[in-house]
Amino acid sequence: MTDYKPTQEPTAALVLANGQVFYGAGIGHVGSAVGEVCFNTAMTGYQEILTDPSYAAQIVCFTFPHVGNTGTSIDDEEASSPRAETAAVGAIFRAAVTPASNWRSDAELGDWLAARKIIGLSGVDTRALTAFIRDNGMPNGVIAHAPDGVFDIEALTQQAREWAGLVGADLAKDVGSQEYFDWTQARWNLPGGYSDVENTKRVVMIDYGVKRNIMRNLVSCGLAVTVVPATASAEDILALKPDGVVLSNGPGDPEATGTYAIPTIQKLIAADLPLLGICLGHQLLALALGAKTVKMDQGHHGANHPVKDYTTNKVEIVSMNHGFAVDRQSLPDSVEETHVSLFDGSNCGIRVKGKPVFSVQHHPEASPGPQDSFYLFERFADAVG
Ligand SMILES: NC(=O)CC[C@H](N)C(=O)O
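That is the input. Now the predicted structure with glutamine docked in place:
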């Protein structure tokens, strides 16, 4: 792969740890940021992707060429708080971002990226970058936006090389909420917008970087949601007398977050509470049950991934965003594999035999199906109810 130079003078660049450079036009935040570079194949949902806290410390290369056409809307934020660390650090686009044309848009993508402190880079050969990631795995890199076009490539390469990367990184405790709070908003299901619902059965959401739509789906299934920080102890959680617990999605290496999450989850399982894990929550549940997680080469990031539910033999089209996976071989006898990726056969779901404790690797709230995976929330609500 050769360095790709656009015809105009570049105002932004992606510099990989191996020294390769992708030049383009800058948009959004001015400055530089280091992260792991991944590609996402979704055709829609760029705002939800960039505000999914699971993408913290990542730079997302969109394979879909036209991004930004529908602008941004306050309703499409996914992080529970707008702090800068709760989002991807960079976004890479093939085509230049054109003005938004959509009735829902309340800000142009460029302005929104700037407000969110996300660096955008357009005009990049995203196919070449994606092919590179497919062949070599997800590299560390620095994305830099300098309107004067001056880049110290050597220093940026050095920064990418010296970054410790995502293996061993616990990001969940910084990205998740630092406070306890109740979430009451249900799914967007009325012409007037989202509705607030008061439910009686209460679940605690351990926030490792939760997405809002997970909480909306729980509320829509009849559950009241109390959010607690990632580091909340089992004692603190049990004191809230929950009817169930949800382990959220989140960024970073599950093993690193596991140092404090595993003992908590083990106590919650011992307390016989219904438990649902999603993505990072799935990986943490597996670790708490004695299994292992592994780093994937290119990961799964997209909105068209087929997953099979062995318990019903149905295939659902799901949204994925993960760079680590549960190692099937390491699952103990007490655990049954319930879901598998039909792309690469990797594990996508588990349940504990004889207990209402289960988890999935994909994002059932993200609706590419569009409703294929909502049954998981209903399954959990039934277990709680
Ligand atoms: N979406 C998530 O929860 C991601 C989980 C984990 N950080 C991974 O990359 O595998």
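Residues 202 and 224 are 5 Å apart (CA to CA).
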